[in-house]
Write a structure and sequence with these properties.
single chain, alpha+beta, 3-stranded antiparallel beta sheet, two-stranded antiparallel sheet, 4 helices, 58% helix, elongated
């Protein structure tokens, strides 16, 4: 074990080694205190009324945002209603024009019947004669086909054989409604 002098020397050398660290810590604390003192002085131009003022400003801003959203929505709805009004007016005018066109056609009637169409040389149905025939039976001079019906006609032997179609079957077209004059 050492003497008392050795112990004193060790304590002093330990204190000398720790002194620069303590001095550095003191300088840092002093610098931070000075910086805080400079930052803590409030600027004269900025006005801070506190928590309630900040909340009031936030509510004010939200209210103006909501109001502008409602105004945009109202403008869009007004635009849609104007477009719908224009469309309704044009539809009503179109219906009046169509009714006027029908009223201007003298002695025009739609009649129902069942008249077979002839087959044209190209194989398509020729229903002009059938429409005229329906109109003449109702007392008119001429007519045009308005509605036609097509049916497949098969002889009884096809049905008795349990088939629904075959080479013996043929397609026939009938005029079922005509516009007569």
């Amino acid at each position: 074990m050492g003497t008392g002098r050795d112990l004193t020397f060790r304590r002093n050398s330990l204190a000398l080694r720790a002194a620069p660290g303590w001095m550095l810590a003191g300088v840092l604390v002093l610098t931070a205190a000075l910086a805080f003192a400079q930052d803590s002085t409030p600027p004269v131009e900025k006005r801070d009324d506190g928590f309630f003022a900040a909340v009031g400003r936030w509510f004010s801003q939200q209210s103006s945002n909501v109001n502008s959203s409602f105004k945009d929505a109202r403008d869009k709805v007004e635009g849609l209603s104007q477009e719908a009004g224009a469309a309704a007016k044009s539809t009503v005018e179109g219906a009046k024009d169509a009714a006027g066109a029908v009223a201007r056609i003298p002695n025009v009637r739609t009649v129902s019947g069942h008249e077979k169409c002839q087959v044209a040389p190209n194989g398509a149905p020729d229903c002009i004669a059938a429409a005229n025939a329906i109109c003449k039976t109702k007392g008119f001079d001429s007519g045009r086909s308005l509605d036609m019906t097509t049916a497949e006609i098969c002889p009884p032997k096809v049905w008795m054989a349990g088939r629904s179609t075959g080479p013996e079957c043929r397609t026939e077209t009938f005029v079922s409604r005509a516009v007569c004059q």
